[in-house]
Design goal:
Blueprint (H helix, E strand, L loop, with lengths): L1 E4 L5 H13 L3 E6 L4 E6 L2 H5 L9 E5 L18 E4 L2 E4 L2 E7 L6 H13 L4 E3 L17 H14 L3 E4 L6 H7 L2 E4 L7 H8 L5 E4 L6 H13 L5 E5 L17 H8 L4 E3 L1 H5 L2 H14 L3 E5 L20 H14 L3 E2 L4
Helix pairs in contact: 3-4, 6-7, 10-11
Bound molecules: erythose-4-phosphate and phosphoenolpyruvate (PEP).
Erythose-4-phosphate (E4P) binds next to loops.
Length: 341
């Protein structure tokens, strides 16, 4: 059950509902959005029905949502959400490009990659300081030193930073540098991490688990939303199938399906899905054409020396083609490329 508060509801109105629900043995999770506050209720629905919640001061509506995910469900919010990352919009009529190195390696490499990202039309910089690697012997990222580099590069280029956090105990630290927290495919069901990210006060980019159904992905988003944060962007990044010609199989149909089930913006990662440089442009084209709210792309000034995922990184030579694509295709599907800050 979800209570939708009126735009002019006061903090006292909200506090009395939380108290009333607690006195009925339930829990109330308050999520403050840009235009309205919603309260998700957990507990005995029949008992809640006796409370006459709709008549309480400040309440606009009480919704019974049939989907197992409530706060992120489109049943709760029919209009599609726009998430702002340090002012940069994702969702609505926008098509937003996020680009940068897979991993932060050095200040020079990160700055060069950020300048490449800008040239390709990106309005947000990606880059991992904490890398979730298959092998414990592979480069794990620079940690806080990498976050400092990202922060310096943001100052130099004006591009807000999206960076991954892999452990709940690092959320506060990463959030103190990042403009948006990324939760990767391997951690999509790390519930403690999802909850910590939901409390961090920063927008969250939630990648789909490589073996997760769309419903499991939306339930993971619900964990973040339930902690009071509805600034969530979903990212389809390819799933595990029998096919070995690509690193993962981009589930392009997941974009319209997730958009029909949830009000959250949905973007696509053409780099980690295909796993090959030559596939990044065709998959980006497919993502924009299908109606994705954005793409997140790996770029690197010298992919042959990259410490992570070099084969999928775009080079200098690929930038004009990506810039042309994101400049021309969004308009054909009713979108406008988010301006480079
Ligand atoms: C990238 O960003 C991930 O850390 C990377 O794709 C992990 O893959 P690998 O460790 O199997 O190379
Ligand atoms: C990444 O984008 O850096 C990353 C690790 O991606 P994924 O979680 O999709 O593998």
């Amino acid at each position: 059950m979800v209570i939708v508060m009126a735009p002019d509801a006061s903090s006292d109105n909200i506090a009395s509902i939380v108290d009333l629900v607690a006195s009925a043995g339930g829990e109330a999770y308050v999520t403050r959005g840009v235009s309205r506050t919603i309260i998700g209720l957990v507990g005995d629905v029949q008992r809640f029905a006796t409370l006459d919640l709709r008549a309480l001061p400040g309440v606009a509506d009480v919704l019974h949502i049939s989907a197992p995910y409530k706060l992120v469900s489109r049943e709760n919010t029919a209009e599609r959400s726009v998430v702002r990352v340090a002012g940069v919009p994702i969702g609505g009529d926008h098509m937003t490009v996020i680009a940068g190195p897979c991993a932060v390696e050095t200040p020079e490499q990160t700055l060069e990659a950020a300048l490449m990202a800008r040239r390709a039309g990106a309005s947000l910089l990606r880059g991992g300081a904490y890398k979730p690697r298959t092998s414990p012997y592979a480069f794990q990222g620079l940690g806080e030193a990498g976050l400092k580099i990202l922060s310096d590069v943001r100052d130099e280029t004006g591009l807000p930073v999206v960076t991954e956090v892999v452990d709940a105990s690092d959320v506060e630290l990463v959030a103190s540098y990042a403009d948006m927290l990324q939760i990767g495919t391997r951690n999509m069901q790390n519930f403690a991490l999802l909850q910590a990210a939901g409390e961090a006060g920063k927008p969250v980019l939630l990648k789909r688990g490589m073996s997760a159904t769309i419903e499991e992905w939306l339930m993971a988003a619900e964990y973040i939303a339930q902690r009071g944060n509805l600034d969530i962007v979903l990212c389809e990044r390819g799933i595990r199938t029998f096919e070995k010609a690509t690193r993962n199989t981009l589930d392009i149909s997941a974009v319209p399906v997730a958009q029909s089930l949830s009000h959250l913006p949905v973007i696509v990662d053409p780099s980690h899905s295909g796993g090959k440089r030559d596939l990044v442009l065709p998959l980006s084209r497919a993502a924009i054409a299908v109606g994705a709210d954005g793409i997140i792309v790996d770029v690197h000034p010298a992919p042959e020396t990259a410490l992570c995922d070099g084969p999928q990184a775009l080079t200098e030579a690929d930038l004009d083609a990506l810039a042309h694509l994101v400049d021309t295709l969004p308009a054909l599907v009713g979108r406008t490329l988010t301006a480079v800050p």
